[in-house]
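## retry 2 of 3
previous attempt timed out at serialization; input unchanged, resubmitting
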Amino acid sequence: MKIALITGGSRGLGKSISLHLAEKGNDIILTYQNNAAAAQEVVAQILKMGRKAVALKLSMAGHDTFAVFAEEVKAALHQNWQRNNFDFLVNNAGMGVNNPFMDTTETQFDDLMNVHFKGTFFLAQKLLPLMKDGGRIINISSGLARFSMPGYSAYAAMKGAIEVLTRYLAKELGPRKITANIIAPGAIETDFGGGLVRDNKQINDIIASSTALGRVGLPDDIGGAVASLLSDDSGWINGQRIEVSGGIFL
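## retry succeeded, writing output
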């Protein structure tokens, strides 16, 4: 039995990742920012599968709370699993900003940096002492770090930074046999960015027509990919960017 910690696990991609990992026999610690009820619904679904799950509150922009959060994780591990470590960290939590480069404000830039880059950087730093040697890290990036679409310059730049960071994690954590990889989703039908891809038929159709498999991605496409990458069969994959996009803009 292995334990996975997924940030932003109460909805969207994080929910799908949590459920897919539980279906594969993993126990789950998931985080949520505000919606405790949604997080507990995911916990309940996991418990019905016969797995253990815990939901903990976390703001990825609250860097000064990360040390306390690590202690909460440690306490949850002792209380629920009688362990002092976990196996997998999936840095999924995030938020989106769609604004042209010339209109992007410093506040928007800082919000994106604090959540996506600085948050991921220092949360991993605080949690690594609790990660088991031989564990795995998956950071969620975006297809937008490879191809460019107007309005996402700041968001995509943060994801590009995460991709570089991931290679450094793979290199520096090698002595502990911890791997670090990137999953980069294409456009996915979720409420991310106000549900633009899911709810705007014109945008949905444009993305589908630009994708080799002819449709927009679904959360389960990403949840399944993460579960596969965290399986025992994928332990030799390290420092890699894996785009899960159905073949968009090839």
